[in-house]
Amino acid sequence: VVYLDHNATTRPVPEAVAAMVQALQASWANPSSAHGPGQDARRALAAARARVAAFLGCGAAELVFTSGATEANHMALLGALQMSGRERILMSAVEHPGSQALAQRLRGQGVKVDLIPVDAQGRLSLAAARSLIADDVAVVSVMGANNETGVLMPVAEVAALARSAGALMHVDATQLAGKAPLSFAASGADLMSVSAHKLGGPKGVGALMVRKGVALPALLSGRQERNRRGGTENLPGIAGFAAACDRAAATLAADIRHMAAQRARLEAGLAAALPGVHVYGAEAERLCNTLCLRFGTLDAEQVLMKLERAGIVASSGAACSAGGTQPSHVLLAMGESPLHAKAAVRLSLGFDTTAADIDAAIAAATQELLPLLADGLAAAA
Ligand code: PMP
Q: Is residue 240 exposed (0-12), middle (13-18) or buried (19+ Cβ within 10 Å)?
């Protein structure tokens, strides 16, 4: 099959698999143990940490390994609330479903959560952010790029706003890593989440970057990770993460150029072959690999079924909300009608997606969807 669902997850790169196997076989001792094997594991952990930190542009001491971005997002928001004693948070209206669910839970506990709206292109409203920010805000949380549309967010501008109110700035950079240049140091953010499995690493490992000097409380108590994340370190996962970072670092600029070219080929090919193609965020700055679109008002579930039958797998919105029958909150926040939002399909490319893959996807979509769209046009006439 042609896999066009890289924003949901990526196939682990061979370097990551090899590093994981090596860690499982050679560095299985507990990095907290005082004996020789434990100290060897501790050194392997430190080496992996340095490589991940180099890729992310943060200090090794600023990096807290977690079980993934969902945990990192929880640590950021809950920690910021606890640390500041403030009881209000701001987040974009298009954050990941895990963060939205946390916000909903916090509301039930009396925390005020205000959503910063986006425009029809999915771009964050800085004017609204400016009017919502105040000195009762503990943290402003904005994703680096949206997982459904790929639309980029103005992180530096929001960080400046947050700083002006004494609030922390958190960036969910899960979709940026491996698909855009990324530097925690340069971002202006205090806290930043990433996940290994979006850039060729394994699932179940990620990180929260915590700016030096920010005394963020732990989510899981314990001595590991400088008292910031208890639990025996997931060394195989972390080793796989580091190998994926090394691979991405070596080819990032070329990967981005390649994905941008293939995405353009896909977008142009579909628009030329099919009537009624509408691309979300087409006028916004987007990630190089993401194409969120609808084919007229054809229901996404039907489109995905047809495409899969023809050997192309993709998704509707976030994998985390797939299976649900609700239209995407991201597209609703962009002002789409529920009918249109339920027609949205996300095609997301990887660094290893080939031109032949793209041509196969265009051919499959044309073959499977053109008859349906032609029927629709005839019915409308
Ligand atoms: N944030 C964003 C923007 C994501 O795309 C994802 C992955 N769907 C997550 C958070 C969750 O990451 P993880 O699977 O590592 O918990």
A: buried
The partner residues of 191 in beta bridges, in order of sequence, read: 170, 210
141 pLDDT higher than 70: yes
CA–CA gap between residue 138 and residue 88 (Å, rounded): 6
Q: CB neighbours of 127 closer than 8 A, spacing ≥ 6?
A: none
Q: Give 152's contacts (C-beta < 8 A, 6+ positions apart).
A: 144, 145, 180, 284, 285, 286, 287
pLDDT confidence band for 374 (50 / 70 / 90): confident
Mean pLDDT throughout 220-237?
98
57 and 96 belong to one structural domain: yes
Domain CATH for 46: 3.40.640.10
Interval between CA 232 and ligand 1 midpoint (Å): 22
The interface predicted TM-score (ipTM) is 0.99
Q: Give me the phi and psi of 345, to 5 degrees please.
A: -125, 140
Q: Does any ligand 1 atom lie closer than 6 A to the CB of residue 327?
A: no
For the Cβ of 224 lying below 6 angstroms from any atom of ligand 1, the answer is no
Question: Distance (Å, rounded) from C-alpha 56 to C-alpha 174?
Answer: 11
pLDDT tens profile 310-323: 999 999 975 555 55
Q: Are residues 192 and 303 in the same domain?
A: no
Of 213, 247, 281, which marks where a domain is finished?
A: 247
The one-letter amino acid code at 163 reads R
Measured by CA distance, the residue closest to atom 4 of ligand 1 is 174
